[in-house]
Write a structure and sequence with these properties.
Nucleoside Triphosphate Pyrophosphohydrolase; 23% helix; DNA-binding; homodimer; seven-stranded mixed β-sheet; alpha+beta; elongated; three-stranded antiparallel β-sheet
DNA sequence: CCAATAGTGTCTGTTAGACAATATACA
DNA sequence: TGTATATTGTCTAACAGACACTATTGG
């Protein structure tokens, strides 16, 4: 980087805006949800009143790095401090923001819906969960290029759920295997075989028993916690290892 | 994004630098190579004389978007216009560049080594291919955080090679199946079974016959081209489709 | 006919998906 | 004992890895 043609060290050329946006996913009522915020209508900023991903400019004084910035946004909106957080990608162009050349760094977070208190502003309706479904994804109503970013995030999530333990981050601990299976099914949008699912989960060896959990009725299920919340598990893949 | 606290529309706060860096990979002499450029020693810029990834500041006037910027860097260094290009991720922090808060958008490109003419500057040795091996990856000699970016890129490449047709972009067309297999083996760093490899490639149905190719001796192999250079093929994965 | 590489066939252990059976609670 | 959910077991078709074999060229 930084092979500048001029011998000057001033670096006084136009700089794009740098922002961070966060896709915050959870599961509520057997549906995948994403957090959106409504943009202000009275400040002269772009896309007044439109729904957008939570995010904003990198604060050079507050944010040590991009991920810290993403965590700050998440904390400000949900109060959640320790989510699963992954970088999704970046989107930058001259056209995406009417104020000028801008580049956003998108992250996506997976959190459990319990214990989340949405941070409302003056307007009580300016932060809300939206169900991730065709209407939301097809609708072009989101601010900026946030619809495209959301589509990319959902695609990435669905893709990774096929071979990782990511859905476990969408549930409060302890959770049961039937709950986890339902979460997989919700994200994937298709049923999963019970027996194979259990075999797979146990073979991955990432769950620790946490005692039987009480349920509404019938046989009480075993509760589980993640052995290591820090890193998700990857299930075996194609081109399997050989000598 | 852009939920600024002040009602001002001036956006006149400090902006980080925005750069793009490109990991340019190819295969030469049965070894994976990456292109590095040597930083100038006489302009007062950071890391003088150190090797670095090709890249630099986004030019708000020249670059319509981030990918266009990456393509420009690639073209300037190699003359290659149509590589496989994929976004790798972004790295941004207050500390990574001594000149101030900066964020770089990293891309990685796969190109065939034939027909590449390295763009040399005044110093003929300032652009060169480096073999991607333990010495290079372990050495902390690269400028900025480029060693970390390189490690991430190699990891991503190795990972995706397990289940995609990416290595095909490292070869000039037409290529033969033995050549392609050798390329897989070079990137993966382990042997691959011939029969299974062929079955897999043919089943993926992404190669078009391009006539028998002459070789040094022995039985001449069939040459192939990609049916669609635009999109790589993904081989089947875990959690295979069910009704 | 031999050597060298290209390409195909076969065998077998493993596994994922489908589905059946059992276990454990409450009413 | 009945019912609903949790959990485990079984059966089988498909497939991947290992390895052997055939094909085609040049010498």
């Amino acid at each position: 980087m930084a092979t500048r043609k001029t011998a000057s060290t001033k670096n006084d050329f136009p700089r794009p805006f740098t922002t961070v946006d966060v896709l915050i996913f959870t599961v509520i009522d057997d549906a995948l949800k994403v957090l959106l915020v409504q943009r202000p209508s009275d400040t002269g900023e772009p896309h007044p009143g439109a729904w957008a991903l939570p995010g904003g400019f990198v604060n050079v004084d507050l944010d040590a790095d991009l991920e810290a910035c993403a965590r700050r946004k998440l904390r400000e909106k949900t109060g959640v401090a320790s989510p699963y957080l992954e970088q999704l990608g970046s989107w930058g162009s001259a056209a995406r923001d009417p104020r000028g050349w801008s580049a956003t760094h998108a992250y996506f977070a997976l959190i459990a819906s319990d214990g989340v208190t949405l941070a409302k502003g003056a307007n009580a309706a300016d932060v809300a969960w939206f169900t991730v479904d065709q209407p939301l994804l097809a609708k072009k109503k989101l601010a900026f290029d946030h619809a495209a970013i959301l589509r990319a995030g959902v695609e990435r999530l669905r893709s990774k759920v096929e071979y990782t333990s990511l859905p476990a981050y969408l549930l409060p601990e302890p959770f049961t295997l039937p709950q986890l299976q339902r979460t997989y099914e919700v994200v994937l949008g298709r049923p999963v075989d019970k027996s194979g699912f259990r075999t797979r989960m146990m073979a991955a060896d990432f769950l620790a028993e946490a005692g039987v959990v009480e349920s509404d009725s019938n046989r009480p299920p075993m509760g589980y916690r993640l052995k290591d919340r820090g890193t998700p598990v990857f299930f075996p893949r194609t081109f399997s290892p050989r000598g």
